[in-house]
Each structure stands twice: as structure tokens, then as C-alpha cells.
Fold Serine--pyruvate aminotransferase / L-alanine:glyoxylate aminotransferase.
Amino acid sequence: MTSIPGQLSPAPRLLLGPGPSDAHPRVLTAMTTPLLGHLDPQFLEIMNETQTMLRAVYQTKNPLTFPVSATGTAGMETCLVNLIEPGDKAVICTMGYFGNRMVDIAGRCSAQVTVKEAPWGQTFDLQVLRETLQTVRPKVLGIVHAETSTGALQDISELGKLCHEFGALLVTDCVTSLGCTPVKLDEWEVDAAFSCSQKGLSCPPGMSPVSFSPRAVDALKARKTKVQSWYLDLTSIMSYWGGDRAYHHTAPITMVYALREGLRLVLEEGLEARFARHVRNHVALKAGLEALGLTYTAAAHCQLPQLNAVRIPEGADDAACRKRLLTEFGIEIGGGLGDFKGKAWRIGLMGQNSRPSCVFQVLAALEVVLLGAGVKVTGGAGVAAAEKAYAA
């Protein structure tokens, strides 16, 4: 006879890694709302409300703006498989782990991929990309706005205009930026963007908000071949999330409830106030981390406020330190990926978790762990530096 596991009761965690972050209590409450059918008139109105708020957070008027019923990587794939046909030229800019993932997906779309690389922790100069666009003349240029693996923020404010000068479509990874730092799709002339629900929007993982410009929709409609993915084919999904609301798939009703509440929270706070909050807490955490002797992996001019990637100090064991943070203090931080595997820690202050209490908790716990690992640390230095930063 099969034994039945006990009722779920995991130990509480403070999720300060690269994601997921803790969901806001109001989001969790919204998820207890009774289910509706995915074509119920009440749910269709909820879909409309979610789309309207998502446009506001993305700062766009794009009609084709909706959450893909899957996690953030599905949003990446949605953008690329719908805009790339076999033989199309694509330029993919990589400055970390997730740019490399875009390269892989573009290749699976049978694109002619030109890879532009920047050192991990650095970002791209616009002039370098101008020369590439002029030489390659691609259909699509893909780039990561906030590179989660390195903690670097790429300036894309003029990149859309540059892409359009050469007839290219700009695709941006906003997984770690949406809801934390400015994302201005219309002003920046971004053609396709994707994000996730579990970081800046303070929801559980499971949804990937995307937005396509009219220019991108025209390219989609002009395709000569079918989109290689049935599930992610926007020519079909458009009829469900827009137009006549024709059945495409059974939407994750509860996750839409969650996203709707997460977006409400963002707009209630106000975009500018939210961005300022993330910067304020980043400044305090950075002061504390540097007081503990930690240095950032991203160059000073492009450090993300919501994802702090720092080098592991000499003498500290990556896995052992993170395990102690988790088991003794209930705090999760992330390890490094790719080139930074075993060399960096990633500390997220995203959405609900961008608040002073999280800053002080992780600094105090990290000090204990570093001291236990034999790293020379001045007692109380991290917390004191953060206090001083908040008081400034």
C-alpha cells in the first residue's frame, strides 16, 4: 500500500536569490479566489483588466500585451519563435548566461545567428551594435535588459531607434527588470519584450508577460512559414487574449488572479516610487556588502539595484556558506551561473523583498557565516554601513 505524505509544511524561507522572490501577502490572498471558467464572462473581464494594467507597467499602448501561460523562459521563446523564420538573420547580444540562452533558441528556429559578446559584468556600447547592424542587416536583434547572472543593467533607451534605422526588430529580456527598474517599451521603441511573474511583480512563478509592437505584429502576419511551436503561436493565441476571445488553451486562472493583484500593487505604489524604493534599498545593501569586503561582479556604471551579484571572498566555500544561510537563518541567496559558477553570490531585492528588513537580515546573517568560514570581517560593519546609507 502506498504511504500518503503528510500535509505540506515546509520551513519558512526568505527568498533573496535571483528568483523566485516572496509573493506579496495580497497576491497569496487573491489566489484563494474561487475558480472561474476560462471563457466565463467574469474571467474575460479579469483578463481585460490584467492586460490594461500590464500595458501601464510596461509603459506601452501595444494591443498585443498579455501573460503567456508559462514561466519566463517561455516568454523568451514566444518572442523568438514568432518573429524568426528559418534562414532569417538574427543578432544576439550576450553578456551573461541568459543571452546565451537566447542564442540557443534562435538557433533552434534555424536562424542565421550572429553572436555579439561582451565580458560578463559589462554591457554593450551602442556604436559597436551600430556597426554590427550595418554589416549583418538582421531581422531581429535580441538583448538582455537586466542580466540576472551578472547583475548588469544594459541601457536600451536608444537601441530600438538604432535597430529601426537598419530595419531590425528589437527583442528584449525584461525578466529581472519589470517592476523594479524603468521599462519604457514605447519610448524606447522596443518591438517585443518578455518578463516573468516571480520577481519584480511579487507573484509566484508561472506567467510570462509579453508585449509586441505593431511593427512586430506586422512581421508576424507576414510570415511565410508556420510558427514552429503550436502552444506559443501568437497567430492563434491572439484570438484568445484579444479579438473574439476564441478558445486556445485553458488559462491558469489562479495565476491570472495573482498577476492581476501583483500589477495592482505596482500601480498603487506608483512606478517612480517603486523604482526609487529599489534604488534606496540597493544603496544600503551595497554599502553593507562592501563594508564586509565583498565586491560586485558588474561594473559600477551598470549595476542592477534589484540583483546584487558579488564575488565570493577568498576562503569562503560557496555551497557551504549558502547552505548555512539557508538552514540556520532561513535565507536563500543564489550561486553563480556559467562563468561565475562557484565564484559569485547573487542577492535579490525584488518587489516585495526590496525593503530595509531584508537588507538588515541578510547582512547580519552573512556576517556570521563569513566569520564562521574564517573570512576576516569587522563585527557589525555591514549593518552599520547600511544604517548610515539609509540615514543619508
User: Anything to note?
Assistant: Residues 59 and 184 are 5 Å apart (CA to CA). Residues 271-291 form the longest helix (21 residues). The chain is about 40% helix and 15% strand.
